[in-house]
Design a protein that fits this description.
The protein is mainly α. The chain is about 70% helix and about 0% strand.
Length: about 240
């Protein structure tokens, strides 16, 4: 009886051990599956962030080129008005044509906002990378941009619209077709202002100087954001390649 009891105990212990081993294996497999699922979700999140960043990069590059051209145009205008450069009214208006334009940058925050709403930013295992992502999307870049927009819309536009005909502006649509944004002044009876009218107008001179100043202050901020976006995109790519 003692011999049989010992065998039963050994058998029961063996069964328990097997059950425990089975549970541990199942937990290990479940943990592996959960980790694998988290890695897939993390990769998907980071790749979506890269797409958003590359949208930002394209916008920054376009706006930097656009605003540098505006600065050059306003410099040409001021040279003409100060008579450092001899030019016709038509040549002046070609440079003056963007005076009512602003153009602004708005970060593509689609993925980041979703991460904040759902709390999924915790899936990014690199604390340093997660911190850099949060820092990029919380950068305050709107001060000079808002100043340019407010000055153009609230001060420049009302005056220019009543002072003279809006300069003819031709832009390209997404298919590369040219679109004329304003009509020819010859279609109307009221005469245009002369180049001398612009030369003797304090507001025109000052608004050109002010917009040029705003743009020159805004461009370094855009360059900083462009470099931040490029570096963050590179960091994400390097992190993904280690996974």
């Amino acid at each position: 009886m003692e011999n049989k009891t010992g065998k039963y105990i050994k058998y029961a212990v063996g069964e328990i051990v097997l059950v425990v081993i089975g549970i541990l294996i199942a937990l290990q497999i479940n943990n592996w599956n959960e980790n694998r699922k988290a890695e897939i979700e993390e990769r998907d999140i980071l790749q979506k962030l890269q797409l958003n960043l590359r949208d930002d990069i394209n916008v920054f590059q376009y706006q930097l080129n656009f605003k540098n051209n505006m600065i050059d145009s306003y410099k040409q205008c001021l040279d003409i008005l100060s008579e450092e450069t001899v030019a016709t009214k038509e040549e002046f208006m070609n440079h003056f044509s963007s005076i009512l334009q602003v153009g602004s940058v708005k970060l593509n925050m689609t993925t980041f906002n979703n991460l904040q709403t759902t709390g999924q930013i915790r899936l990014i295992k690199s604390n340093e990378l997660a911190d850099n992502i949060v820092s990029y999307y919380n950068t305050d870049y709107t001060l000079w941009q808002s100043a340019l927009q407010d000055y153009t819309r609230n001060i420049t536009a009302p005056y220019v619209l009543q002072f003279d005909y809006i300069p003819q502006l031709i832009i390209n649509d997404s298919q590369g077709n040219q679109i004329e944004m304003t009509g020819q002044s010859k279609d109307f009876k009221k005469p245009e202002k002369t180049l001398n009218d612009y030369k003797n107008n304090y507001f025109i001179i000052n608004t050109l100087r002010q917009k040029k100043y705003n743009l020159e202050a805004l461009i370094p901020r855009y360059k900083e954001l462009l470099n931040s976006a490029l570096n963050l995109d590179k960091s994400i790519q390097e992190y993904l390649e280690t996974k």
